[in-house]
Amino acid sequence: MLTDTERRRRQQEAIELNDAIVQGLSVARLALELNETDRAGEAIDRTLAAARRIVTKLLEDLGDEAWPVAPGDLVRAKAAALDELERDGD
After folding, report:
1. What does the alpha-carbon distance between residue 89 and residue 2 come to, in Å, rounded to a whole number?
2. Confidence of residue 13 (pLDDT cuts 50, 70, 90)
């Protein structure tokens, strides 16, 4: 069972990850609506980089508690499809 401190820390980490992704995708969507494709691409690249940094930090913070992560360990068995993403949001 998680302590209150651990629960708050995980909540903060989830909020940080969510904010980085949602804000970045919002910028990309607005740029696409304004037909600014270069800006949209840059926003997507920055968002992906931020998400990677946050996840890497979370894994590093686990230290000895984490299982060893080797290249390819975090690859999904099945690629995500847009229709799956739409269903998850419902």
Report:
1. 27
2. confident
